[in-house]
Amino acid sequence: MRVLLVGSGGREHAMAAAIARSPLLEALFIAPGNPGTAALGTNVAIAADDVAGLVALAQAERIDLVVPGPEAPLVAGLADACDAAGIACAGPTRAAAELEGSKSFTKEVCDAARIPTARWERFDSVAPALEFVRRRGAPIVIKADGLAAGKGVVVAMTEAEAEDAIRAMMDDASLGDAGRSVVIEERLVGDEVSLFAFCAGETAVLIGAAQDHKRIGEGDTGPNTGGMGAVSPPTGFDRARQEAALDVLVRPMLDEMVRRGTPFRGVIFAGLMLTDEGPKLIEYNVRFGDPEAQALLIRLQSDLLPALASVADGTLDTTDIRFSDDHSISIVLAARGYPGKPVAGGVIDGIAEAGHLPGVHVFHAGTRQDAEGRIVAAGGRVLTVCATGATLAEARSRAYHGVAAIRWDDATWRRDIGERALRAEGQAG
Known about the structure:
5-stranded parallel beta sheet; D-amino Acid Aminotransferase, Chain A, domain 1; alpha+beta; Dna Ligase, domain 1; Rossmann fold
């Protein structure tokens, strides 16, 4: 098969590595890709949200399957454009991608399908949103209704924090158009986990689960980020519990989307809270997570490519998905200043040495190659260092040894990824 993978992050590097292992692969193109994906296929300098350019590339290179990585091209209609051109795409239509493109749309689907989620209201202007917060009190959650690259959620512990978040999003346009309207909802309490499944129509096939560490600082402090690390599988959330959560939180959504005439196909990423009342949905994303994908895909034993093809052609019920029993962990190395203004341009050494350590994998994200052929930082989240092990403690030790092997003056990372899971398992760190 000739495959076009769309995206440039650590998730796409991990996906490219898994696709490249397939005996079915004839050629792999990545648009725009990064220095890591360049070793696995052909990078093409077309932006991930350039739908027309991506379709033209797919036509020129006789692509059999387009595999979207990030959400932006899906919300922009990449799958629709591929379908119009007669090209298979393992992702949802623009209408179905509204599950990620609009928080209020997701809430409406949940209400219609009776999917347990937080109580909520949507607001298009500041005054009624502030009044709602004053009436309900804190803690409370403020969400930008649109796409905000993982940075559109504020868990406000005080009314003042909630009011500041509302004004920043709606008055100051801190998140651009994404925050023109907001969803305000009750704060759910419990362990947050990420659940992944391949979906097509009314069929869902479990991929697996991971637990992200969203905040920038140790002890889950500071602002939310796109994710600073993940462990897989989450402690206390085995495959039986994952399947049970699919029955409650994903399959009813698929039925509702079919009823609406906008069936979903692709990867669904259900962010959920394990509450005392059972799992409740936080949000849907319409693609693999980052850095969850990196932790998941290094445990994958089956062939990813036919699974992706089955999503596109609707033969999902025959999909074979197998993972090792290993534990895995991913640790994000970000640039100093992230999630604000990251420092760019620093030279990074030691990536190859880290990748040769037992069980360690290093995925590029915000990197580029300079004129001298050196790898330099060019983004917020720059590298993801991952590892597998027979236990989470072993995987964690290996991953942090990998981090230590990388030399980059502007690097920042969390030193407590997986610690809470280890405490829950009773393992030594």
